[in-house]
Amino acid sequence: MLSSSLTAVKNPSVKKKLCFLLKLVGFVSSVFLFCEFLIYYVAIFQCRWPEVKDGAPMGEKETSASVLKAMILADTHLLGEIKGHWFDKLRREWQMERSFQTALWLLQPDIVFILGDVFDEGKWSSPQAWADDVRRFRKMFRYPVSTELVVIVGNHDIGFHYEMTTYKVNRFEKVFNLTSGKLITRKGVNFVLVNSVAMEGDGCAVCSTSEAKLVALSHKLNCSLQKPNHSNKRCSGVEKLPASEPILLQHYPLYRKSDSECSGEDSAPPEEKNIPFKEKYDVLSQEASQKLIWWFHPRLILSGHTHSACEVLHAGKIPEISVPSFSWRNRNNPSFIMGSITPTDFSLQKCFLPYESRVFTIYCAAGALFVILILAHVQLLTPPFYFAQRLISKHKAV
């Protein structure tokens, strides 16, 4: 009789503890699921493709079929074996993978451009380390057959000019199936892919080859933009491209003195804005910038490298958008650009990813609540409800 009564006493206690434990596990799992998975859907679900100014809303079939939906990001900086800590790799790569895959699923872009510095240590990587970095990149940035991925070369992929070699350039171009000075045309929109690291202007082998390709491409584009009745012997026999002013895609921005004129929540911090940029390091040289504008007369320039957002006008009419870094290692508030582009017009919209500081705040608040719940359960901390109830009881007793 005594044994059965003790068992009856213990069972409710065990059930109560088990129920509390399951609630804690559920609470922790919910917080983790939200911060590491659902939060990306919450952030990106708010983004919408912009409408082209002279077109109809993107929802209409006639317009959406003719508008190219382009997603542009930059500076992913996948960590390598030399400077990359395993936890830093794990954390940053998970964040970028979830953001990218969520964006593809929700937004379904036609084409994605990554504006260089895909890898952090491409300039140093051994063949084995390079192969491992490429494998991880392909896993993170996998994409469906309905989407195209185009990657531009950056200084961290092949090294700054003094580190750049033909071997490193060929290695990069082989993986991403592109060449410097290449033009791609999608839905009548011309994009020129520039190896801005090779715009040194000193006649190096890679530089000379790259510039020669750009000059030849410039000739084709200029001939294609001429009116059909315009007679020009230099254009006879030249392959005609769609008569659309090109969009330049490159890693280095064109020359500007600094980021002092840049604004917005993802522009450079105030203490960095007035630091002068170094030509051929932070930005292209004035000479190289003038060459690209003169050769192509682009209607838009998209660049990366600075890790911060900026919008400037060149020659008073050509906009350049510097795209911030896509990695939380470089920014608290990464983002990417959504572009609705036609042969004659374009409209851009920025899509912000979750702020890492907010994720950290959620974890801290959840951790504090977790500790409070445990302390209250073991009666080391009186829950506020019971504390208030006791005060009311004492007041009535008086």
Explained architecture:
This protein is an alpha/beta fold and 398 residues long. Helix content is 43%, strand content 14%. The strands form 2 sheets. A 6-stranded mixed β-sheet has the order 4-5-6-7-9-8, covered by helices on one side. α1 crosses α3 (86-107) and α1 runs antiparallel to α10 (356-377). The protein is elongated and about 100 Å long. The model is unreliable at 55-62 (pLDDT under 50). The chain crosses the membrane at residues 20-43, 360-387.
> How is the main sheet built?
6 strands, mixed
- Under the CATH scheme, the architecture is 4-Layer Sandwich
- Tell me the CATH topology: Purple Acid Phosphatase, chain A, domain 2
Structural class: alpha/beta
Secondary structure tally: strands: 11
Radius of gyration: 28 Å
The proportion of residues forming helix, as a percent range, comes to 40-55%
Shape: elongated
Task: Output the CATH homologous superfamily.
Answer: Metallo-dependent phosphatases
List unreliable stretches of 5+ residues: 55-62
Q: How many independent structural domains?
A: 1
Share of β-strand residues: 5-15%
Strand order of the largest sheet: 4-5-6-7-9-8
Total count of helical runs of at least 4 residues: 11
Mean pLDDT: 88
Order of helices and strands: HHEHEHEHHEEHEHHEEEEEHH
Transmembrane segments: 20-43, 360-387
Domain Calcineurin-like phosphoesterase: 69-308
Pfam families: Metallophos
GO biological process, one term: GPI anchor biosynthetic process
